[in-house]
Write a structure and sequence with these properties.
By secondary structure, the protein is of the alpha/beta class. It has 2 domains: 84 residues, 2-Layer Sandwich (Alpha-Beta Plaits); 155 residues, Vaccinia Virus protein VP39 (Rossmann fold, 3-Layer(aba) Sandwich), CATH 3.40.50.150. Helix content is 27%, strand content 31%. It has 9 helices and 14 strands. The protein has a 7-stranded mixed beta sheet with strand order 10-9-8-11-12-14-13, sandwiched between helices. The protein has a 4-stranded antiparallel beta sheet with strand order 2-3-1-4, covered by helices on one side. A 3-stranded mixed beta sheet has the order 5-6-7. α6 links the parallel β9 and β10. α4 runs parallel beside α5. The chain is elongated and about 70 Å long.
């Protein structure tokens, strides 16, 4: 079955207006995209900003008179109508997500692919709703640091903002006795549980909301969030880690490095930072 797709670009403040019109006219899906390569790195709390030039894509069945719908849009935008042929979307997804190595030992492998190095530290993970497949620089930087750790045997870690669970699972594969996964999003906790089960570490990976986390100190913390929440969580995270324990902070833009470093320097000796693309990872050690 083919589909019909209408595409046009509007200002950010008009996007909701046009989206509502397409919904009223029976669009099966409405997608908002960046029309001018304008990154939105870290929105303010409780906001959902759009790009200054927002591309709107409406999808309709092939028997819809999309030309008539386009003529009824108010105000009238410049638009393009295309025929979107039926495709095997699963196969396309599988082709775009292949095994990826981080450092020397860690491989992230989708379930449909055979691990290139069977004896390596292989994590089975498929793309999904929760953030964190390793492809983004913030996650990649954390995995690269974990790869440099010879062993986490006998240690307990905390994956704060666990998302897909990828970092906690990697820590467990590196020998950690237990990793607590924490996230504010119940969907993320479910995704972490699913991935932990897939990788046979669910029993060592308890998951909870922040308020449910037991008051205990971990040997190390992985926190791949964003700069502003990290700064707000300084005292919380400092209280959750043992003296001399390592904290790995990510989700930080390069220009935010000093802001985060300043926030953490009273509690941690900041021992190194690393940049990949526009993002940095900061590693610190808890002061005694």
């Amino acid at each position: 079955m083919a589909w019909l797709q209408i595409t046009f670009t509007v200002a950010a403040n008009a996007a909701n207006h046009f989206s509502e019109q397409l919904e009223q006219f029976g669009a099966l899906s409405i997608t908002l995209q960046d029309a001018a390569d304008q990154p939105l790195y870290e929105p303010d709390l409780n906001t959902t900003p759009l790009w200054d030039h927002t591309k709107i894509v409406g999808l309709f069945t092939d028997d819809t008179d999309v030309q008539a719908i386009a003529a009824r849009l108010e105000p009238q935008p410049e638009y393009r109508i295309e025929v979107l042929e039926e495709q095997d979307w699963l196969r396309l997804c599988q082709r775009n997500f292949q095994p990826t190595r981080f450092g020397e030992r860690i491989w992230i492998c989708p379930s449909w692919s055979t691990p290139p190095e069977p004896d390596a530290l292989n994590i089975s993970l498929d793309p999904g709703l929760a953030f964190g497949t390793g492809t983004h620089a913030t996650t990649s930087l954390c995995l690269q640091w974990l790869d440099t750790q010879e062993s986490l045997k006998g240690q307990q870690w905390l994956d704060y903002g666990c998302g897909s669970g990828i970092l906690g699972i990697a820590a467990l594969k590196l020998g950690a006795d237990m990793v607590w996964g924490v996230d504010t999003d119940p969907q993320a906790l479910q995704a972490s549980l699913d991935n932990a089960m897939k990788n046979h570490v669910a029993a060592q990976f308890p998951l909870c909301l922040p308020a449910q986390l037991p008051k205990q100190q971990a040997d190390g913390i992985l926190a791949n969030i964003l700069a502003n929440p990290l700064c707000e969580l300084v005292e919380t995270l400092a209280g959750l880690i043992k003296p001399k324990g390592y904290i790995v902070l990510s989700g930080i833009l390069a220009e935010q490095r000093e802001q985060v470093s300043t926030a953490y320097q009273n509690y941690f000796d900041l021992i190194e930072w690393q940049q990949q693309d526009d993002w940095v990872r900061i590693v610190g050690q808890r002061k005694i």
